[in-house]
Amino acid sequence: MNNASCTTNCLAPFVKILDEEFGIVKGTMTTTHSYTGDQRLLDASHRDLRRARAAALNIVPTSTGAAKAVSLVLPKLKGKLNGIALRVPTPNVSVVDLVINVEKKGVTAEEVNAAFRKAAEGPLKGVLDVCDVPLVSVDFRCTDVSSTIDSSLIMVMGDDMVKVVAWYDNEWGYSQRVVDLAHLVANKWPGVAAAKGGGDPLEEFYETNPADEECKVFE
What are the Glyceraldehyde 3-phosphate dehydrogenase catalytic domain coordinates in residue numbering (predicted)? Predict the structure, then answer.
């Protein structure tokens, strides 16, 4: 059982829509990712010589398996996507930049945005969202969805090259999908009653203790 990574959870929903609506030929992605515990705070030893450098002082190019991992849930895309990560000195929230060639000719940015809005209001509601406001990374802290499309940054070059930028809280947002997985397993486990609510592990606590200091943190 595997819930993949935060970046894969961001990438997969909107890649699925792009492939279904326009057909993906090939593409590359870059995740500008907040630094993580696998990096060094000061220059020190690490098997990855770049991750060995001080995380809070550098932009650190490194590998990511997110693009390839997408093919595990979307087998049709095997061998069509690849990418890298740029670890940056921010504590949380990351952003994926995807550039693809599509089969459909003459596609427009408006069509791409419309496809995302339709999915966000329908089958991918709660997982995918679309943002029309010019925000920055800190504004996406504690967002429950796995992927928030930045509509103003969608570009189309020529008639078949599409660029999509999507934000994600690589800590909180990913945790919501882990909770979803736990609920899914619990609901299918023999002899276990269906879990209450939509996946928030603190939902019942919030309802019964609204004045608690822990609840106020998330207001």
Answer: 11-168
Do 86 and 121 fall within a single domain? yes
- Whose tokens are 């736990």? That residue is 182
74 and 158, same domain (yes or no): yes
**Max mean pLDDT range (61-75, 139-153, 188-202):** 139-153
112 and 23 share one domain? yes
Whether 77 contacts 18, CB under 8 Å = no
Looking up residue 163, the CATH number of its domain turns out to be 3.30.360.10
Residue type at 102 in one-letter notation: V
Is position 1 within any domain? Answer: no
Question: Two tokens at 174?
Answer: 């990913």
Same domain, 180 and 148: no
Residue 151 C-alpha from the chain's centroid: 15
My answer on whether 69 and 139 are in the same domain is yes
Domain identity same for 189 and 128 = no
What is the pTM (predicted TM-score) of this model? Answer: 0.84
> What residues are annotated to the active site?
6
Tell me the DSSP string of 29-62.
Answer: EEEEEE--TTSBSSS---SSTTTTSBTTT--EEE
pLDDT per position as a tens digit, 156-208: 999 999 999 999 999 999 999 999 999 888 888 776 665 555 555 445 655 66
Half-sphere exposure of 9 (CA within 13 A, CB side): 24
What pLDDT digit, counting tens, does each position of 26-51 carry? 999 999 999 998 899 999 999 999 99
